Amino acid sequence: MTETKQRKIYDKVSKEKVEQKLIEIFGSENVTGKSVDLYPYSYDMTECEAHMPDFVVLPENEEQLVRLVKYCNTNAIPIVPYISGNNVGGLTIPEKGGIVIDFGKKMNRILHIDENMMYALLEPGVTFGQLYKYLEDNYPHLRYSYPFAPPYAGVVGNAILSGMNNLSCKIGSMGDSINGLEVITADGSIARIGSCFYGKDEADDDSWWCRYPMPDLMGLFINWQGMTGLVTKCAVQLWPNPPFKKTYLAIVFGLEAIAPVMREVGRIEVVDDISAVSIEVVKMAIEIPEPTKIEGEPDFAALFPVSAKTENQMNAKKEILDSTIKKLQDQGIKVILVDVDEFSRLFNLRVRCYLDLPSVVLTLVEYSGLTWFGSYAPTHKLEELIREVYPIFLKYNVPPFIYMKIMKHGHYGIFRPIIRYKKFENEEKIHQLLEEITEVCINKGCIPYKTPVWMTEKMRKKINPGWLKLFDKIKNCMDPNNIFNPGRWNT
Ligand SMILES: Cc1cc2nc3c(=O)[nH]c(=O)nc-3n(C[C@H](O)[C@H](O)[C@H](O)COP(=O)(O)OP(=O)(O)OC[C@H]3O[C@@H](n4cnc5c(N)ncnc54)[C@H](O)[C@@H]3O)c2cc1C
Q: Are residues 311 and 412 in the same domain?
């Protein structure tokens, strides 16, 4: 871990002066430089190298952040935006030290729910659990799309990282469902992006309804991992919450047979989401923490949540799903469709966690360490990816945990090999395994999201030089003093 004294960030202004300034801006109760407070921000659940920040601040409003950004920009001090550090990519580990801005504690208000245009205007710290409860209590006819992330992870962090959630078969990446952003850029100016761009100093709450058709500046902040500015408000789309819901579970025999099952079911436009896991994960869900596959067992299972406005519509959707499964069976694919509500009753709450999101999916958090190669993947290569990645897990004697999704009815997919491990134990072996998986997947065209620095280093060797040049130009232009989350994407 690098210590402050090894860095040169306090050449222009002393650390003591910086602390005084932070206290002046945020108040002493919202600033800390004590090691005991800083330590939790120095690492996350991944095996990524830890780095201590120098300060953590808890902002309450935009005005404080404008002052902070101007000060840090003048003095070239790194700032790392943070919500709850649940990204599983080391993205909030302060590579170059500096100041962590923790939005999760005091900038976490749901500012507006627009029933008519179906969106929620949020501060960055709003969590999935908070939004779920708020909608359930006040707008039960509206719903959001939830990931397998815990309820205490952030909605805005997930959206600006192009998360994939439980409506993704319909709506695709969560990045696409952002209607508007308010951001602070390096010179301290505040910009509103999207239909909320009308209005000199303020936007009406009901003006955050769309991001088109002006030049799409949203892309300057989505997937940039906090490298181009600070998001202070974000409007995300909501959807009608139909009263009829059911989840089906497809059990598939044959390692690669899951791929056509996912693709075919994706195309019928009947299911809200498709998430498939290797059978080892099903065993983890029924309390076998280190499972092995027994000969003759199925290889994958996929969840298909379905929702409908009426019982008739639900029955019609089920009929289409059944006929698709039958068609696949006729092609020789061994797949069985079961009612997962019945299945979950046979076991325990660990299985229900997967169905009733947002929830703490115990399979994912029961070990202190969690890391993954999470990627957007070409769905026509899922067979090859499974074939090559599955044996890598076995080589390292780690239970194969492969998670996949179909996005936007099959236009693209998700391929995510996951590793649970004991944090601070065997991290080198875990890293080697992940690196080997990364090589295979990048060579097949997978594009990782939530990328740790070592991963972007690998990607840079394969990316078109024109793209890299443009990327570097934009980063330089947006952040000339490299203060925003420096080090990410090897900046
Ligand atoms: C067990 C588990 C399961 C998960 N399952 C899924 C899943 O199924 N699907 C999925 O999509 N994700 C999943 N995730 C990841 C998670 O949903 C998102 O990454 C998360 O919601 C964002 O985390 P966070 O709110 O803690 O943000 P952080 O991790 O704190 O920050 C995320 C990134 O955003 C930047 N950032 C934070 N705030 C700002 C700001 N105000 N302005 C600019 N940049 C900012 C940070 O610097 C960082 O780069 C899972 C995570 C866990 C732990």
A: yes
